[in-house]
Design a protein that fits this description.
Blueprint: H1 14-20, E1 31-37, E2 42-48, E3 53-58, H2 62-65, H3 74-91, E4 97-98, H4 108-118
Parallel strand pairs: 1-4
Antiparallel strand pairs: 1-2, 2-3
Helix pairs in contact: 3-4
Length: 128
């Protein structure tokens, strides 16, 4: 009679637990999207629930700024949305919690969010 191996498979990858919604503790999101609009630049950041910045895109980056006519207009916001969506897809992030910070959905914010959605990013992260 063959001996049976008694083992238990444990997945210690925290990224898998985040996607399954089985992280310990209470949190409202795993990834939060923040948008900063100033008079001179547009900056987007994706933050982990621990507070660390996972990725960012800004018109302060020289390769992006060289391709733009202005660094603070609607076109700049749209392009930052496209770059952010591409970087999120490359990082394996497909959904984020949109932190609107009291902003209305029009102008630069609308252009940014429309570019993210066109890039395949969901702004409705599943409840954890």
């Amino acid at each position: 009679m063959a001996a049976r191996a008694a083992f238990q498979l444990v997945n210690r990858n925290p990224r898998s637990l985040e996607r399954l919604g089985k992280l310990p503790g209470r949190m409202d999101f795993v990834y939060r999207l923040r948008l900063e609009l100033t008079g001179r630049h547009v900056t987007a950041q994706v933050q982990h629930h621990t507070g660390r910045v996972v990725l960012s895109a800004s018109t302060r980056e020289m390769p992006i700024a060289q391709q733009l006519y202005g660094t603070a207009d609607k076109a700049a916001a749209h392009n930052i949305g496209r770059v952010t969506a591409q970087r999120m897809q490359e990082s394996g992030i497909s959904a984020v919690h949109w932190d609107h910070q009291g902003r209305k959905y029009h102008g630069k914010v609308k252009e940014f969010l429309d570019a993210l959605e066109q890039g395949g990013i969901s702004l409705k992260e599943t409840a954890k």
